[in-house]
Design goal:
Blueprint (H helix, E strand, L loop, with lengths): L1 H10 L4 E10 L2 E11 L4 E5 L6 H8 L9 E6 L2 E3 L4 H6 L2 E4 L11 H5 L1 H5 L8 H14 L15 H14 L4 E5 L7 H16 L4 E5 L2 H7 L2 E6 L2 E7 L5 H9 L3 H4 L7
Parallel strand pairs: 3-8, 3-9, 6-7, 7-8
Antiparallel strand pairs: 1-2, 1-4, 4-5, 9-10
């Protein structure tokens, strides 16, 4: 089974490659020779404790840290890319949904999803009717549980997060990145989010799911890449997942060192 997983991955070409990425903040080495390969149609978990380098890596991938401010190379669909801004990342097919909720409460669901399209419409013309029709179909086709005409201020925190995912998907990205999306969700809301992510996988979408929660790795992901102290520790396929090893790789110590057996007299 392990061999089959590895062979399946080997037969594909990565849709996204970050090769030998290094980044310094003054005298601090935040990332050191980090590589991340993401394959089409998979859910890859990017994991690590706070300070492992996940946020720095995502700022590089999203164009917040432009090319020239770090070492290494980014390839999308086999082509090397240089990005100078978050807009460049979007144009290249990278959509990142941050932890923070960033939506326009005074607009409808449809208007929020269409915001980027409206901003690029130089004619300044917007048909509310056609916009609603377009977004209704988009939500239905992607099985996203939102109502196009609903005012965003009426949505729960969880629904606003789903709206952010819908807005990212509307750009038809090559890779969708979800940055710790379960941090403020209930168990039912997490189950609903996982259902949406699995449905996206069935539709061929590629997802990078950032988390530090072991149950999420074991339940949701096809592969996992672990960062620790700014370095890539391990990349494993699902058939290789071992809970104790994953935790040890994340924290840099064996579980037995954290919870030694007590001597019973």
């Amino acid at each position: 089974m392990i061999a089959n997983d590895q062979q399946d991955r080997a037969r594909k070409s990565p849709i996204l490659q970050l090769n030998s990425i290094s980044k310094r903040y003054g005298g601090v080495q935040a990332l050191s020779d980090v590589s991340l390969h993401v394959y089409p149609g998979e859910i890859l978990c990017l994991v690590g404790e706070n300070g492992a380098g996940k946020s720095t890596l995502m700022k590089i991938l999203s164009g917040i840290y432009p090319s020239g401010t770090f070492e290494g190379e980014i390839n999308v669909a086999g082509e090397p890319v240089k990005m100078s801004s978050p807009l460049d990342a979007q144009v290249r097919g990278i959509s990142i949904v941050p932890q923070e909720i960033t939506v326009a409460d005074t607009l409808t669901v449809a208007e929020n999803i269409l915001l980027s399209e409206l901003a690029m419409n130089r004619k300044g013309f917007y048909s509310k009717k056609s916009g609603l029709q377009k977004i209704r179909k988009f939500l239905e086709d992607n099985e996203i549980p939102l109502t196009a005409e609903q005012l965003v201020s009426e949505l729960s925190l969880h629904k606003k997060q789903i709206l952010m995912i819908a807005s990212a998907l509307y750009k038809n990205p090559k890779v969708l990145v979800l940055d710790e999306p379960t941090s403020s969700l209930t168990s039912d809301e997490i189950a609903n989010l996982f259902s949406i992510v699995r449905n996206l996988k069935k539709r061929g979408f590629t997802t990078v799911f950032i988390t530090h929660k072991l149950p999420e790795i074991l339940e949701l992901c096809d592969a996992v890449s672990i960062l620790r102290d700014g370095k890539t520790v391990r990349t494993s396929e699902k058939s290789e997942f071992d809970a104790n090893q994953l935790v040890s790789d994340m924290i840099g110590r064996k579980l037995g060192d954290l919870y030694p057996e007590k001597n019973v007299l």
